[in-house]
Amino acid sequence: MNDPKATPDSTGSPARASLARMLELTRGEEMDCEGFADHLAALVEGNVEPELKALMDHHRLICPECDEEREALERALASTP
Amino acid sequence: MDGTAATEWDWVAVLRDPARRDDAAARLRDRLRRGLGRSFGRQLTDEDLDDLTQDAVVRTLDKLDAFRGESQFLTWATAIGVRVALGEIRKRKHATRAMDQVLADGREAVGQALAPQSLQQDDARAVLHKAIEEALTDTQREALLAKLGGLSMMEIGRRTGRNRGALYKLLHDARKRLLAHLQQAGYGPDDLLTAQEATV
After folding, report:
1. Among A25, A53, B155, B191, which has the minimal tally of Cβ within 10 Å of its Cβ?
2. Model pTM above 0.90
3. pLDDT band for position B1 (cuts 50, 70, 90)
4. Which residues of B touch A11 (CB under 8 A)?
């Protein structure tokens, strides 16, 4: 998922310009980081239902750290025999 | 499981079997070490990777009951390892930053983000600035400023004694509160975006 306005940040600062974006992305119900972690392995294998994937994709936009974990997991699994 | 088990659940069974656990844990350690090396080899030393892999194996064994079979076992275990490794990297990155400095950076970030742009934006930004100071609880404000100050969620949680789930809820509630104040005043998040942000 590529949102050009998202500002994923590598182990650092989601900070400054993201205040307005954080509010823009705010929903009444959101998946939290623990929920994301619970399903991360299934996500990278493409084994999540569309509704769950939508929640996880939204979480990735608002939580660059969790998206970083997804990227790191994909790298770790990249050439696993 | 490396030719010795037929299903993902066999990993769980073998790791629970005292007679076979050590051998299985050694194979798991080897697989995790290779994965973490691929992902973090440039950021961590071999010694770090060995230590973090061992930590990841221990955590995986502790969490066996949580494996639901939604993914391959090794993918699930590697996700645990990635979180362990990133936790350490983030902790080191922010280790020397005192909380007071983080909060000051957060306030500066708010000040910059809410700097004057236009008459309408100025009013929206004033509403938001006031809401940050007056509508949030102390803990919500501290967590928000720490995040805006560049501290990772994991590190904020560590310093404030909250797990990431609880911290996310705290910040989510803060965002909803700020958004409600903004909307009650007739504005939306778009009114806060700088011209650059709005056109990116």
Report:
1. A53
2. no
3. low
4. 86, 89-90, 93, 152
